[in-house]
Write a structure and sequence with these properties.
The chain has 336 residues and is an alpha/beta fold. Helices cover 32% and strands 17% of the residues. It starts with 12 loop residues before the first strand and ends with a helix.
Length: 336
């Protein structure tokens, strides 16, 4: 099961996705902004949305979690104006969630949830230009440049990207822009192809291509490889039963590569149903990452926020105020 080099007993970061601003986004990079369901209570038209702030306070206070990933659609941020300025109203709502996250003391990942696409076309490869993508990240980096616990998650789940080297060049432009916008030291996530699969990261060329991405000073400090992995039969994260802990197939080989190359990764999506099989395998997976925390910075479960119990992989606690009850899977494997 690989070499265990950790002496800390826990990974640096453990947390949960707080979804809702990404609702309406499809894997083709279309985002129907009318379907956004923010986990922010006091915004129109309902004024009774899920309490993402309360969830994060609970996870931080009661479960010792310290990172939250906040998915959002690119179209929502710019109100469907590709290459345009951040929409003040929509950004204001999203920023409420960001500020609620920061106020807990946790790290907060801004995740653009667009699959390397805008309305079906791939960034820098026939779709939006690199400059249009750089534009949205420059504006976000300028806004949050002074916040040391903001984490810039460049893109959720690129897939079927024809050229991984061209994609890496796009990522490089974004990293340079974020740093030049004043966010000089924060963590930045580098996502590979194949839905960020931890099992494919080396074999599909993502590891080699993204290794060329550097900070303006030539270093790779706080440039973290960003992987996903589910535990169900087809690795889709759509089934409530789990069949693998992903150790031998994904996380052990990747740990070896990360050590050899003196790099680190974070698992920003993983999860399962509230079932005995998922409790078994997800806890095993997290234990392995913890044992190898020299190369794995941590993990973020999918998902809480605006998901309710009808969703197969819900991690949303029930309750309100200061009284929350975790799902069985969160209680078993995420709380620490």
């Amino acid at each position: 099961m690989g070499t265990a080099n950790s002496t800390t007993g826990k990974v640096r970061f453990a947390g949960v996705n707080i979804a809702g601003f990404d609702f309406g986004c499809g894997t083709d990079g279309t985002c129907n902004t009318a379907k956004v369901y923010p986990p922010v209570t006091n915004i129109p038209p309902y004024y009774n949305n899920p309490d993402g702030a309360g969830q994060m306070q609970h996870f931080y206070r009661d479960d010792n979690l310290n990172i939250f990933r906040l998915p959002v659609g690119w179209q929502y941020l710019v109100n469907n104006n590709l290459g345009g300025t951040l929409d003040s109203i929509n950004l204001g709502y999203y920023d409420q969630l960001v500020q609620s996250c920061l106020s807990t003391g946790a790290y907060c990942i801004i995740d653009i949830h667009n699959y390397a696409r805008w309305n079906g076309a791939i960034i820098g490869q026939g779709g939006p230009t690199d400059d249009q993508f750089v534009s949205v990240w420059t504006q976000l980096a300028q806004k949050y440049a002074s916040q040391s616990k903001i984490w810039f998650g460049i893109m959720n789940e690129p897939h079927d990207v024809p050229s991984i080297t061209t994609w890496a060049a796009t990522v490089q432009k974004v990293v340079t822009a974020i740093r030049q916008a004043g966010a000089t030291s924060q963590f930045i996530s580098l996502p590979g192809n194949d839905w960020q699969s931890a099992a494919a990261f080396i074999s599909d060329g993502s590891a080699a291509a993204l290794s060329t991405v550097k900070n303006p000073d030539g270093s790779t400090t706080n440039l973290i490889f960003d992987v996903h992995k589910y535990l169900d039969s087809d690795n889709s994260g759509t089934h409530t039963e789990c069949v693998t802990n992903n150790i031998d197939s994904a996380f052990a080989p990747l740990a070896t590569w990360l050590r050899q190359n003196n790099r680190q990764a974070i698992l920003t999506e993983t999860g399962g149903g509230n079932t005995a099989s998922c409790e078994q395998y997800l806890c095993q997976q997290f234990n392995y990452l913890t044992q190898n925390s020299d190369v794995y910075l941590g993990y973020v479960g999918w998902s809480a926020g605006s998901f309710d119990s009808t969703y197969e992989l819900y991690l949303t606690p029930s309750g309100s105020g200061n009284s929350w009850t975790d799902t069985p899977l969160a209680k078993a494997c995420l709380a620490r």
